[in-house]
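2024-03-11 09:14:02 INFO worker-7 job=invfold-0412 stage=load source=structure_tokens
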């Protein structure tokens, strides 16, 4: 017969296992209402990813899975933005404030905007497309090169590689980007006014975003190759009216 100590240990292990399993259940895509902007996210990165979102103050909230949530490998989830929404979805290996971001604003059909921002920092490569055409992002794995000053590397992620490289150029409106972020300049935001990363207003209300190096490449990203991956690497509003970075309200923000 098991002792009470053994029984307690068994119960603890069972609870831990149950909790771990619950964390990798695919978050259900949110139901789209008429007039909403849908942002679908596919995890092609090769490891589970943390997702969370926040909205600009005074703007309607994004609808989606409880946050932060964990998106399993090869899984897809979606968020729905009502008219008037502006904010961002944070994507990374951990729930870090400087994760890569999907930023957007939406003011009704034919009046939306989406971009990928590494202004706060880089965690994973993201590409967003509309109708099969890439509109923003960069699929390069920037951690195939070192994150050095003026940038700042965070702790290691679950894959044994850095979780985040915080961007040293976030306070410099016109950059330039560091050598770490430079391969994605003009394709994703690498400094606050890196406006080549934004295509302007989009007419579709369905946006598809893909995380990983296997996602379609942006024609804007730099063509030069990064160093060979490490062995453990996982296989519409005008921009002048918006603000990037965590100084003040980051993401999309209208200026008076």
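2024-03-11 09:14:09 INFO worker-7 stage=emit residues=256
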């Amino acid at each position: 017969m098991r002792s009470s100590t053994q029984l307690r240990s068994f119960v603890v292990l069972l609870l831990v296992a149950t909790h771990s399993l619950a964390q990798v259940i695919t978050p259900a895509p949110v139901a789209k209402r008429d007039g909403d902007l849908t942002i679908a996210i596919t995890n092609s990165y090769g490891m589970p990813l943390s997702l969370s979102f926040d909205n600009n103050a005074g703007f309607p909230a994004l609808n989606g899975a409880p946050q932060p949530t964990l998106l399993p490998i090869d899984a897809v989830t979606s968020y729905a933005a009502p008219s008037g929404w502006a904010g961002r979805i944070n994507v990374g290996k951990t729930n870090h404030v400087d994760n890569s971001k999907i930023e957007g604003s939406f003011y009704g059909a034919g009046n939306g905007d989406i971009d990928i921002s590494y202004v706060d920092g880089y965690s994973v490569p993201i590409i967003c497309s509309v109708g099969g055409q890439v509109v923003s992002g960069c699929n390069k794995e920037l951690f195939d090169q070192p994150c050095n000053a003026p940038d700042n590397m965070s702790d290691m992620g679950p894959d044994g590689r850095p979780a985040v490289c915080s961007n040293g150029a976030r306070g410099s409106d016109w950059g330039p980007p560091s050598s770490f972020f430079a391969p994605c300049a003009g394709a994703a935001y690498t400094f606050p006014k890196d406006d080549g990363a934004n295509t302007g207003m989009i007419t579709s209300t369905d946006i598809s975003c893909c995380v990983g190096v296997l996602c379609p490449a942006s024609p804007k990203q730099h063509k030069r190759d990064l160093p060979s991956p490490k062995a453990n690497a996982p296989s519409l509003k005008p921009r002048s009216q918006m603000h990037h970075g965590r100084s003040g309200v980051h993401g999309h923000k209208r200026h008076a």
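2024-03-11 09:14:09 INFO worker-7 stage=report msg="The CA atoms of residues 110 and 254 lie 18 Å apart."
2024-03-11 09:14:10 INFO worker-7 job finished
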